[in-house]
Write a structure and sequence with these properties.
It is a single chain. The chain has 34 helices and 27 strands. It is mainly alpha-helical. The chain has seven domains: 108 residues, no CATH class; 108 residues, no CATH class; 29 residues, no CATH class; 40 residues, no CATH class; 86 residues; 108 residues, no CATH class; 156 residues, Orthogonal Bundle (hpI Integrase, Chain A). β17 and β18 form a beta hairpin. α2 packs across α3. The protein starts with a helix and ends in a 7-residue tail after the last helix.
Length: 822
């Protein structure tokens, strides 16, 4: 078999190729023993492929044991030697030729502890010796020439810190410096040298630290409560997390390190970290690896070509058809692949095995082990005397504890007390609602994972100790991100912070940044007037005290950016709005780099009304009806599928029907509350506008079901949410964008479906009834009615004219003489 054939087999059957190559050399070990060693060394798919490719390119390494070679080959040689192989050579040192029992590598070569040490000219004595350490300038020194510094490291660092925060406790600084490197005094000396060169490392520039010990020293000072010490944020993502990975002269977090390894996949074009590479060395992303035909096999159960993770005597089985017996689930009653409970011996399907619910016996939220879907029973109530259940030493409740110590809920309470308590050891009254809400959450494990995520515990600890004020403005100073947004939403949901319009705050911040970043003073003045006194003022008037939506934020942002683009172009042409003429404006409109043309027209018309510009014309486009074709049949087909397809999520079915039947935009659907649904005398009504609408029976059933099963965020599960569609953040509804994405996944084209529904309703209802029923503006209802050729005002006038003509005909007939009476 040629090398090319070996390389092809390294992709399709890497373990088999390595086994055969080893078996060709080693005759004493059996095939099964060799295969077991190869599997233990090869690891995952990517590692096994790289091992097989390296061995196929240079199989002689099995007999000479010499590098260069990957580390996996060295581990394979060591593993085969331990299994009793005699023809397989052990790894051999690159320089001295001695055999190795363990591997030490420099690049692709293997070294021993003696050969691998670096040798250089000592900067003190000038002799070429092994480098013992490096001095404060980074120059090498041998072990015979130490870099003496007679100063006390604690005194030097204490002087630097007191310059930042006077009155700092010297003992706290000394303890932090000792814990930075307990057994390595020279490491502590390097920390002192680095802080002397750049004291700003302690006040936020720690990402420039040359040693990881400096970051640990900063963390210890911050934990000790030393004022003025700032934990550094990642210079790339601006998150305050652990940053110990060097990248381009800075310390970054692990996520940014992973993103730096992103490459463009040669198949799908996505920029992700390569999961493997093809035969030509080009990167392949994880998604393309899963879809790689070389990795797919035909499942013997479903017949689909998929990646398999288990094999039976009959053949491969995919993850969806794992080899489980098909039984009747004792909880939900469905016939499905089931597992047998170790406690009760009863069958449970995959959904019921992972299900948590309120036990009907003890009432606690626990994993379900028996009972039925309507009457679940937890594990301790199913088998109270089982050895798996142990009483918690703190609360005494029986729990399935895998290690000695308190139960998850007691652990959560202890952790909350550590984070939220102040110097007196008690939780401040302002944070007591947050403490009670988190301590009483239904799933303690979820709350513990949230507290350990990112900067959550750091921010809450700063708020509890008073190092950070308990205000929205203090949270605004933190790096922007989803973690900080979620912390704010939790504080608002527990009424620790007052509610505010986050979209409006984000928009005001954007306005400030765009205005201040403009190049000219005249442009900044115009942008400030346009944004503050026109766009924001109009948006506040239209919102009527409610929070603005994502679509309103996007529209206002586009109008503002269109104004910025136009003013930037005018500056490049040495023009202003006052000196710009119609020919200049048309030249910009027809240029290739024009952006937001329609929104720029809004800015030009505002400038004309404010006398800022003159002799310009930018007409508005009048809306003359929907631009897309109406497909009423497709709309009804989708509605029937949502009504009868039980495999779809109930909340998605209800939201889709509200769009298809009542022309409700995702922004309006996401803001529905439980008070918008009324049930009186057996009829279910929903209120979009001033007049409620009675729902038909199938839709009414979905609405009542959503009222019953809707669930708030898992961390604050007991916080009552008023929203019909709760979002990912506690106390807030699902965003309009997320609602739209869920409807798009159902195959619904939002704009086309809403236009079709509104067009049909406009032909059947007068504009006034349409506006009051659907909650839209009366002018919008009139425009849609005219577009649908159903102008009810003209119809009423025509009826009035018909009645007038009929009355006139009757009167004239009464005035005519009767020919029989002469």
């Amino acid at each position: 078999m040629t090398t090319a054939d070996h390389l092809d087999r390294a992709v399709t059957d890497p373990v088999g190729l390595v086994t055969d190559l080893v078996a060709d050399v080693e005759r004493e070990l059996g095939i099964e023993t060799i295969r077991a060693v190869v599997i233990s060394v090869a690891g995952g798919r990517a590692k096994s492929r790289s091992l097989a490719k390296a061995l196929a390119m240079r199989p002689v390494v099995l007999t000479d044991g010499c590098s260069p070679a990957p580390r996996a080959i060295g581990n394979l040689l060591i593993g085969l030697r331990k299994a009793g192989a005699s023809a397989i050579a052990p790894p051999v040192r690159a320089d001295c030729g001695k055999t190795l029992r363990t591997l030490q590598r420099k690049g692709q070569d293997w070294y021993c502890g003696v050969c691998g040490q670096e040798a250089a000219e000592c900067s003190a004595c000038g002799n070429v010796r092994r480098v013992g350490f490096r001095d404060r300038k980074g120059l090498p020194r041998c072990s015979m020439c130490p870099d003496h510094d007679d100063r006390d490291p604690v005194a030097v660092v204490y002087g630097l810190i007191t310059a930042i925060a006077p009155g700092t406790d010297r003992d706290a600084v000394a303890e932090a410096l000792r814990r930075t490197a307990p057994d390595r005094p020279h490491y502590r000396q390097r920390v002192v040298w680095a802080l002397e060169e750049n004291p700003r490392l302690l006040t936020g520039e720690g990402y420039l630290a040359p040693h990881r010990a400096i970051l640990r020293f900063i963390d210890l000072l911050h934990t000790a409560g030393v004022a003025g010490i700032v934990r550094p944020a990642c210079p790339r993502c601006r998150r305050v997390v652990r940053i110990d990975k060097p990248l381009d002269g800075q310390r970054v977090c692990r996520n940014c390190t992973a993103k730096s390894r992103f490459e463009e996949c040669v198949r799908c074009g996505a920029r992700r970290e390569p999961a493997t590479r093809d035969a030509e060395g080009r990167p392949l992303c994880p998604s393309c690896l899963v879809r790689d035909p070389a990795n797919l096999e035909t499942c013997i159960v479903c017949g689909e070509s998929r990646m398999v993770n288990s094999r039976t005597a009959d053949g491969p089985v995919c993850p969806n058809c794992r080899p489980l017996p098909v039984l009747l689930c004792s909880i939900c009653g469905r016939t499905a692949p089931c597992m047998l409970s170790k406690l009760t011996g009863l069958a449970r399907c995959g959904g019921c095995d992972r299900r948590q619910a309120h036990c009907t016996v003890c009432g606690r939220m626990r994993g379900i082990h028996s009972g039925t879907a309507d009457d679940p029973v937890c594990g301790p109530c199913t088998t109270p005397d089982a050895e798996l259940w142990r009483p918690c030493p703190n609360c005494g409740q029986a729990e399935r504890l895998h290690a000695p110590g308190p139960c998850p809920r007691c652990t959560l309470k202890q952790r909350l007390h550590e984070i939220l308590c102040d110097d007196t050891g008690s939780v401040i009254p302002q944070l007591q609602p947050l403490h009670d809400a988190l301590a009483g959450t239904e799933r303690a494990g979820t709350a513990m994972r949230w507290l350990s995520k990112g900067i959550v515990s750091t921010v809450l600890s700063d708020l509890g100790s008073g190092r950070r004020p308990l205000t929205h403005e203090a949270l605004d100073e933190l790096p922007e991100g989803k973690v900080v947004e979620h912390i704010r939403s939790v504080l608002v949901a527990t009424e620790v912070l007052p509610r505010r319009d986050e979209q409006m705050v984000r928009l005001e911040r954007l306005v400030k940044d765009l205005v201040e970043s403009h190049a000219t003073a005249e442009g900044r003045k115009i942008l400030h007037r346009y944004a503050t006194w026109h766009l924001l003022r109009r948006l506040r008037r239209r919102s009527r005290g409610k929070e603005i939506t994502h679509y309103q934020l996007t529209g206002t942002r586009q109008h503002l950016r269109a104004a910025v683009h136009l003013l930037d172009w005018l500056k490049e042409q040495n023009l202003t709005l006052a000196t710009c003429r119609q020919a200049d404006l048309e030249r910009w409109m027809t240029s290739d780099d024009v952006r937001h043309r329609r929104e720029a027209g809004h800015f030009v018309r505002w400038a004309l009304s404010q006398k800022i510009a003159r002799d310009l014309s930018f007409p508005a486009v009048r809306w003359n009806g929907p631009s897309q074709a109406m497909d009423d049949e497709a709309r009804w087909d989708t509605a029937r599928r949502l009504l009868h397809d039980d495999t779809l999520k109930p909340e998605d079915r209800l939201a889709g029907l509200l769009l298809l039947l009542y022309a409700q935009w995702p922004a309006a659907i996401s803001r529905l509350t439980i008070d918008h649904i009324e049930e009186t005398d057996g009829a279910v009504r929903i209120r979009f506008g001033a007049v409620p609408v009675e729902l038909p029976a199938p839709v009414a059933e979905l609405a009542l079901n959503q009222l019953a099963i809707r669930r708030s965020h898992a961390v604050l599960g007991r916080t009552e949410s008023p929203w019909l569609f709760p979002g990912g953040q506690p106390g807030r509804p699902i965003s309009a964008w997320a609602m739209g994405e869920r409807l798009r996944k159902l195959g619904i084209r939002l704009a086309e479906a809403r236009s079709t529904a509104l067009f049909q309703l406009a032909t059947e209802l007068p504009a006034a009834v349409l506006a009051r029923t659907l909650g839209i503006d009366i002018t919008v209802a009139v425009k849609w009615q005219r577009a649908a050729a159903g102008d009810w005002a003209a119809y009423a006038a025509e009826i009035s004219r018909r009645a007038s003509r009929h009355n006139q005909e009757i009167e004239s007939a009464n005035r005519r003489p009767d020919p029989q009476n002469g």
